Amino acid sequence: MESGLNCYFSRNPTTVRKTVLKIAICIGACLLIGFLSSFATQSSVNDWYLTLNKPSFNPPNWLFAPVWTVLYILMGIAAGIVWSKGFYHLWVKTAMYHFGFQLLLNALWSIIFFGLKNPLAALFVILTLLVLIVLTIKWFLVVSKKAAYLMVPYLVWVTFATVLNFKIWELN
User: How confident is the model over 69-111, as pLDDT tens digits?
Assistant: First the structure.
């Protein structure tokens, strides 16, 4: 699809403005979801989470917020690029629906792991999230290689988070 359409930053100023606006909206939506789900995280990160046995590869707590901020921005850019290809295209709609569902599961994981303090249920959510991220990347690839590549760091981090979630559940 990407080769059939002009580059998402065409020379047409109206198209550029529309694309930038869509990217900004998607970044804002991703950051908002991250911000809202952080309430569940903050509810137990300074008490319950500290009492858990964690594996040796558990990153320091201060690292999570900046990593997630960067990932949400990359995800938003990717979604904005896909959206800018035209929501009337079936492939774009399919890609964006997958993106939306995985973003909701992303937030649900925080609610279940930190809010409900249930690492086992969160493990099932994050495994489902991983599948949806792969499917989102697959559909983004159909629409835009750049957008698909922007999702890879997110996939890598969630894969790591899945292993971490499993080990926390196993150790506790």
Answer: 999 999 999 999 999 999 899 999 999 999 999 999 999 999 9
Find out whether 58 and 124 touch, Cβ atoms under 8 Å.
Answer: no
CATH number of the 2-171 domain: 1.20.1260.100
Whether 120 and 133 have beta carbons less than 8 Å apart is answered as no
The radius of gyration computed from the CA coordinates of the chain, to the nearest angstrom, equals 17
- Answer for the pair 144, 1: CB distance below 8 angstroms, yes or no: yes
Residues contacting residue 98 through CB under 8 Å, at least 6 positions apart = 132, 135, 136, 139
Q: pTM for the complete prediction?
A: 0.90
Q: For the chain, how far is it from start to end, CA to CA, in angstroms?
A: 47
The full set of domain ranges for the chain reads 2-171
Across the chain, which distance is largest between two alpha carbons, in Å? 57
